[in-house]
Write a structure and sequence with these properties.
single chain, mainly beta, 7-stranded mixed beta sheet, 4-stranded antiparallel beta sheet, globular
């Protein structure tokens, strides 16, 4: 499984941004978006199952971020709205082949910077 994230950039607080994660590979692939801010540990932001019917979000982004996937395009999206300064981080997409527990496959990160 290979992943490639894109869509990061500079945005003002309150603005929106869409991240994309292009996926290659087969299987029951669950995809997650993670982020890592300077000096902080990497953490899960959102995850989505193969069918798109199962999603999970970190409390800090609930109601602001939406994860979705287009299996025809092999792409997972993270729509980020009402961005806050604390959303500034490097965002990574990762995948795990269910029923494995660990996200074993990682793409390179994309930087999101939220300015005041």
């Amino acid at each position: 499984v290979q992943l490639q994230a894109s869509g990061g950039g500079l945005v003002q607080a309150g603005g929106s941004l869409r991240l994309s994660c292009a996926i290659s590979g087969r299987g029951n692939i669950e995809v997650g978006w993670f982020r890592q801010a300077p000096g902080k540990a990497r953490g899960l932001v959102a995850a989505i199952g193969l069918s798109g019917g199962s999603t999970d979000y970190a409390d800090s982004v609930k109601g602001r971020f939406t994860i979705s996937r287009d299996n025809a395009k092999n792409t997972v999206y993270l729509d980020m709205n009402s961005l806050k300064l604390e959303d500034t981080a490097v965002y990574f997409c990762a995948a795990r082949l269910l029923p494995r527990a660990l996200f074993e496959y990682w793409g390179k990160g994309t930087l999101v910077t939220v300015s005041s």
